[in-house]
Structure of Wall-associated receptor kinase galacturonan-binding domain-containing protein:
Amino acid sequence: MEISGSRSFTLILAFLLLGFCSETCNAKDDTSAKSCTSSCGHIHNISYPFRLNHDPKYCGNVSHTLSCESNITVLDIPSSGKYYVQAINYNNNTIRLLDPGLANTNCSSMPQNIPPNPNLDPYGRYLSWSSTSIDYLMCSNPLNSSLYVDTAPCLNNTSSSSQPKTYSYVKVGGIEVWDLDEGCSAEWTAWTAWGLFYDGEDYSNVSYKDIHNALVYGFELDFRDFGIGCQGWMGLYASPCFPHTIPGASTLTKVITICS
């Protein structure tokens, strides 16, 4: 099979970068980076691969930089927004995050960020295997199904003289457009570590306050580290690291991953 010119060039460039990275990605000594420990607020175990933005440059991995804002540890995910770090578990490589729009004392509080999309992360740092999606629906007619949870009284159904009455629900576990009931639309989505609170598909005895409590607990992302040599570079699993400033580097990374 004849390989197209653009693909051939991509593969050639990939092999050249492989050779370059074999030297560059292993050039740094990771001893100092792994010896740093920082704290901010109630997060006392900020260590490799994480670091705070005011830590010495040799600490942690720059692609896992956190900030300390008003004594709150914050992770900024450009494709999504800023999140409050609730916990970091180095045993199972998870970081638990809270959307800043949610308040424990107010069940009408809503998440303000669109959940992070791992595909838009240039470093491929985080995955969402540990999280469950919560979808907010607005319907023109009431629903009678244990799959949906009424958000009242936290989020009231709306009606006015100029607009017809609408009903608000949430669906746990995600929903596809073709699964929506007639007259319903998906308004928002959020993530939570729902599996830690409830294991089942019948939500007839679950209230929205229960779901809101789970949202306030936060959601977990699985974090990945590609080693000190890939600081400021991209990489996936055991693939080489690439400078994210090189056009098409993310494509090269995927090509190498698929071919390896």
User: Anything to note?
Assistant: Residues 73-223 form one domain. The first strand starts at residue 37 and ends at 40.
